[in-house]
Every structure is written in structure tokens, then in C-alpha cells.
Amino acid sequence: MTNKExxxxxxAEIVKLMDVSVDTDITSQQRSNREAExxxxxxxxxxxxxxDEGIELTDAHLQVAQLLRDYYREHGVPENGRxxxxxxxxxxxxxxxxxxLHRLFPEGPVTxxxxxxxxxxxxxxxxxxxxxTR
Length: 134
Fold this sequence. Notes:
Elements: H1 3-18, H2 26-38, H3 43-52, H4 59-75, H5 81-91, H6 98-104, H7 109-116
Helix pairs in contact: 2-4, 4-7
């Protein structure tokens, strides 16, 4: 191998090592950031929050929390709690919708559910003056 070929091979190796592709899709980047935020949560944390709020965490609570986490992963924090309330109501319609959810989460499926899921509560969800999305 000549010196010129050797330098060309070394250059090619360096270029391979320098390839730091950047994801330029904003939606994909945001989703990746949200996935990183979701990484540290576990069921024990949810149980502690529930216990502090006087609720014994069941699989039904965890199902709601996981659904909220999946929604957050895909869409981020919604502008308001109504969007999440409507989504939960539709998802659990066969079990009684809002009534079922309020039996699980007396302070509101959005507000309490987001706390159990270790997620930011959407604006106006905790203020009863803004409706019933709590």
C-alpha cells in the first residue's frame, strides 16, 4: 500500500468516526425529548403519590397513568385538560367513562392521573373555575 492510499484510508476512517448525524425532524426530536423525560418513572413512584393522596393504587389506576404517559409521549402537554378528559372519557366509555374515572380519581382523572403518572398537569386543570376537566 502506498503512502497516498494509506492516507486515503485513514481519512475515510476519520470521516466515519466524525459522522454525527442530526435528526432535523422537529416532531421526532420533541418525541425523543419526551421519551427521555418519561424514562425515570416507575410503579413504585405512582404508589407513593397515591398513598400520599389516600388512594390504594390498583391496576385500573396504572392503566390510566400509562395511557396518559403514552399520550404525553406522542403529543406532549395539551393546551388544556379538556383534551385529556375527552380522550380518557372516550377510552373508558365502556366502563362508564367520566363516572368510572372519577371513582378512581376523586380529585379528577386529569389532575390526579397526571400526578400519578409523574407528568405536568395541563393549564387550568386544577382550577375548578375552568370546568370539570379536573
